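Recap slide: Alpha-glycerophosphate oxidase, sequence and predicted structure.
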Amino acid sequence: MAFSKETRKKTLKALQTTELDLLIIGGGITGAGVALQASASGMKTGLIEMQDFAEGTSSRSTKLVHGGIRYLKNFDVEVVADTVTERAVVQGIAPHIPKPAPMLLPIYDEPSSTFNMFSVKIAMDLYDHLANVTGSTYANYTLSKEEVLEREPNLRADGLLGGGVYLDFKNNDARLVIENIKQAAHDGGLMASRVKAVAFLYEGDRIAGVKAQDLLTGELFEIKSKLVINTSGPWVDKIRNLKEHNDMPTQIRPTKGVHLVVDNSKLKVPQPTYLDTGKNDGRMFFVVPRENKTYFGTTDTDYQGDYEKPVVEQADVDYLLEVVNHRYPNANLTLNDIESSWVGLRPLISTNGGSDYNGGNNGKVSDDSFDKVLEVVTRFNQQQAARSDVEDVLNNMESSLSESGNNPSAVSRGSDLTQEKDGLITLSGGKITDYRKMAEGAMKLIQQLLEEKYQLTYTLIDSKKYQVSGGKMTPSLVEETLNELVSKGVQAGLEEADAKYLADLYGTNVIQLYQVMADFKPFEGMSLKDSLSLHYAMEEEMILTPADYLVRRTNYMLFIRDELDQLKQPVLDAMAARFNWSDQQKTTYLEELEEVIASSDLINLKEERA
């Protein structure tokens, strides 16, 4: 099924002429998850996103589907249990996207250390128990100081006690969004990017749709819908402020997260690594290898600037360079070593003290509860206690942690689902790992409201098993399936490395690329691999600008930066020919792309330091 600039025109017409059951404002991961479940359940569903899909926050995460082991430093067990359970679900419904990537956690003898060698083993055993990987090839293990340094010789040796290794997953966040969006469109949903909600429509005192603007043409039009849900992430309060009467307190406290990318020759690590900063600030940071690069982050600071174009500031760079050079003293990384970067806003609930990366306040588990957890987990590992004994202790822990507080409107930890008096539903907060669970919670409310108010009955899908576009494979056979897809690509005429790149990117949808190869002519200045990828993105993934392709459908800007300068003009030329752009349009799109690249490259900061 095509999903392109041409189908967008039909979608916009349908949005104007169809009364929807549900209109979704926001095309990040939360909105995409709701769109998939609503469309698959047969609801008349529409989604509008004022930027590209995933452009706001959902392409700017740490690019991990991680289990939150940090929460176990205060035995906030429930959030870890929720997260690792949901992580397994995401792996099943999008099996071609999250990839297993065991995480190394070095332990230092420092007053501010999150874990010591004893507590990290207890935490990892509990983590594996919750994640149901005990006894598997991904079960945790500890390393001595010598073993850690053998694995990562560039790590600071002073004060190093050893380390732990536990299961985590790399993620392609923007691809997870687009695969959900494509599946929703395949199931009948009306998905449109670069459409902005500018006002609400009312029937009496109830919201009955939105006035929207097509940001490509400037056209204003109305979309009527029985229910409207706000899934706009950091923009949640800005959307609520479009209402005639907004009687709800501010929900979102955005924080800014920055990541920096260097070539792996500058900082080589064999696997994702999660470390205390060493600054006695209670924070941790990630160092992650990816596609011949290494990235590290993240900052976590309150933010009040431009939501659409947050920027990396010198203070962000200084902080991250300080902590990474402290832990890797031979790296001596400087601003000029940074090849690319990204910055995103996290839509934290204002009443929740925890962040996505460092979680919770400093609330304490009571001494009695702490001792009981250590005792029962130790006995469980020695096969002297049953699972039920562990669960009983965990369920009765005493803690003042904000993340453990009961939020009656939450559908996952750190999220909020509310309906206001005028009918607007808002789904906010949460983590990328929780997106399906958040959407499921919202769908139950939407199902109930449609039945009670409009006598419309819908049966919800089992979203724990409903796979996204490109993920139509047996989750336990991902590696085998991808290998088969690579073999088919080689048979079709691709180099093995190119076939692997495309199969990893598109999953089972890569077959569509192979099917056009017989009569396909590569675009001028582009390889067959890249030409097939760009062709597919134009026809099946609704790219509207070169940045959509180079930043969010692929990873060229972040992790294949070496090839970007040679690729950007051929991509622009191919898109201009396909979409009949004028010379002025080509110039405008090139200027926009150059601005995005310059921001990622930190050109302004580098020029200031020159």
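The chain has three domains: 5-58+174-250+406-454, 69-170+253-385, 475-609.
Residues 353-364, 398-406 have pLDDT under 50 and may be disordered.
(End of recap.)
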